[in-house]
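FAQ

Q: What does a record look like?
A: Structure on top, sequence underneath. For example:
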């Protein structure tokens, strides 16, 4: 059992962070954010407007400690039990990104960047909206006007929604999971952005890139999982092993002045720009990772041809 002084420290830390984060979120018009990220205790806490998701990093030897942590969480922040959603997760579990935990099928609407998104706070390890990419989504929106936008490994289509709202001429949303494809359609419809120019494909991304040879895309989002294995795809996906093939496939269908956003959340990832001659590779992680997340949550690059105009992205985070 944790000594009481440490629990008191945890409570004080939560109260301080809640006050700090609320000021910062208000300045940035953010209603969903990370409150606590494994600082002192093995807990991650995300706020989704009126709800809180608490990820407890599983360790059987600390079971009693974790009970105390959850109780301290409730006492410190004053949230009622029905608004706190507890999830247990393993450290660095490969392929666990889309793991199903329950069957409630309850979707809650939250807001981000003036848009609405459906999230599921109980059934999956992740909720349907990756909060660490909020600024990346904003950059995509700002660059989408009049462009053809391709969203690969699209998950629930949040990048597609931002692109459509930003004035994309056409979008394609590609994911192998049919459930997430339907979820993406609902997110688009929730914002009254659906239409014939926005298409959805239940496809393996490798196969899609091989077959998509007759069309050029002006903006491509490539955000693969660290590791993936499915009966619907041949073999496995390993981002460190497979990123050259994925990026080369995207470059083949990227328009001359096109933009490719490439990101992943593999902590040990190594990027070799020498594999992509005549391509300008700019790491923009310092701009895309919000201040409510630790710096290792993801890495992000902006790829353009050397003959294309250079892009300078603005700082979006209004620090408080």
């Amino acid at each position: 059992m944790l000594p009481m002084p440490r629990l008191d420290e945890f409570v004080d830390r939560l109260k301080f962070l809640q006050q700090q984060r609320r000021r910062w979120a208000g300045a940035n018009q953010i209603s969903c954010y990370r409150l606590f990220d494994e600082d002192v205790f093995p807990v991650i806490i995300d706020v989704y407007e009126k709800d809180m998701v608490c990820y407890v990093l599983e360790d059987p030897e600390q079971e009693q400690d974790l009970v105390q942590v959850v109780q301290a969480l409730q006492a410190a922040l004053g949230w009622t039990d029905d608004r706190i959603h507890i999830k247990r997760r393993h450290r660095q579990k490969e392929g666990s990104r889309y793991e199903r935990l329950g069957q409630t099928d309850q979707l809650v609407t939250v807001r981000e960047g003036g848009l609405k998104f459906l999230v599921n706070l109980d059934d999956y390890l992740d909720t349907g909206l990756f909060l660490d990419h909020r600024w990346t989504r904003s950059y995509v929106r700002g660059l989408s006007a009049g462009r053809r936008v391709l969203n690969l490994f699209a998950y629930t289509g949040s990048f597609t929604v931002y692109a459509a709202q930003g004035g994309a001429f056409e979008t394609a949303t590609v994911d192998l999971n049919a459930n997430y494809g339907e979820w993406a359609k609902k997110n688009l419809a929730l914002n009254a952005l659906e239409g014939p120019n926005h298409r959805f494909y239940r496809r393996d991304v490798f196969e899609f890139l091989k077959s998509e040879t007759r069309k050029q895309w002006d903006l491509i989002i490539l955000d693969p999982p660290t590791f993936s294995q499915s009966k619907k795809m041949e073999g496995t996906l390993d981002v460190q092993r497979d990123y050259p093939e994925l990026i080369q496939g995207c470059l083949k269908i990227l328009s001359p002045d096109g933009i490719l956003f490439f990101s992943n959340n593999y902590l040990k990832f190594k990027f070799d720009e020498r594999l992509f001659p005549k391509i300008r590779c700019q790491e923009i992680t310092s701009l895309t990772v919000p201040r409510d997340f630790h710096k290792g949550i993801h890495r992000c690059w902006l790829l353009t041809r050397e003959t294309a105009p250079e892009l300078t992205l603005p700082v979006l985070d209004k620090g408080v």
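Q: Is there anything notable about this one?
A: Residues 92-98 have pLDDT under 50 and may be disordered.
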